[in-house]
Request: fold
Amino acid sequence: MANIKSARKRARQAVKRRSHNVSMRTAARSAIKDVKKAIASGDKKAAAAALVRSQAVIDRTAAKGIVHRNAAARQKSRLAHAIKAMAQEGKQGPSPV
Reply:
């Protein structure tokens, strides 16, 4: 444990910040899982609605620096691509996600 008063405060702040970041990261992962479940069920409208909700959560985590902005963009892109591929499944095979 830190001895200096300012270092003790920084340690307290770090614990608080970490718990907030963990909850935000968990929310983003859950949103991504919801989209993947909707894609697996085959319901394109539900998957598209889940994608819209998840994009907002992913963007918030990227804006706060919890995940890198390129990683957030990659996740959103892959989910959107998987939903787009649902309509073309008969033509090109199963979805990539």
